[in-house]
Amino acid sequence: MPVKPVLAAWARRAAVMAILAILAAARPASADDDILLTLSRGPDNVETLAFTLADLAAMPQVTIRTDNEWTDGLVSYTGPLVRDVLERLALQDALTLRFTAANDYYVDIPSSDFRRYDAIIAIEADGKPLSRRDKGPLWVMYPISEHGELRSQEIYSRLIWQVVRIESL
Question: Which pLDDT band, with edges at 50, 70 and 90, does 33 fall under?
Fold first, then answer.
């Protein structure tokens, strides 16, 4: 028995309306939803944990006011303590951690640094989100101005920016 044209048109309209309702309810992806940082550990780094900017911002925040080789004067950096981020995947006890940037540059940092100093993964500088142009969105920052012994090329090399991955070695 053929479907009446009126009924077929109504069914098409209902299907289109349902699809439009679903699309309208869908929330567009935002920068806060993008995975910015991945932690990994274990043999072949099979255990992983991913963080979005919102995840990092939801953690307790610390602000350090410091200078470094790449900025003029003191800047207030805000973000979670590196040790707090590491604890999320039990990486705080690893002897050495490899921090890798978006361009595949990496630096190996002893985990003892993060027990001794309140280094942070900065997500803001002077109250503004770190952009890629400003070495963001994530920049490892040590409280250099508070500890004279941190003024060294060795420590400056650990101020890795555009961090995307931290893994145990």
Answer: confident
